[in-house]
Specification:
By secondary structure, the protein is α+β, with helices and mostly antiparallel strands. It has one helix at residues 9-23; strands at 2-4, 43-49, 52-59. A 3-stranded antiparallel sheet has the order 1-2-3, covered by helices on one side. A hairpin with a 2-residue loop joins strand 2 (43-49) and strand 3. The radius of gyration is 14 Å and the shape is globular.
């Protein structure tokens, strides 16, 4: 198993489709709703077993706030 960011257009398409299928489709949200304005400010990861995409994840950095 290899965990890394998608590299090709095909891998990115699979990445977003799986994200939509797991997180948005069950709520009857349209394809495309799995993306937001922060896509280019985050770290994306995907788990591959050879050429099969097994899972996806995204990390967002949030500035700490003082209280």
């Amino acid at each position: 198993m290899e965990i890394r960011a998608p590299r090709t257009k095909e891998e990115w398409d699979e990445y977003y489709h799986l994200r939509w299928k797991v997180l948005r489709q069950p709520w009857n949200q349209p394809l495309g709703s799995e993306r937001d304005d922060y896509e280019y400010e985050t770290w994306h990861f995907a788990a591959f077993d050879e050429n099969e995409l097994l899972g996806v994840g995204r990390l967002d950095y949030i500035e700490p706030t003082t209280r």
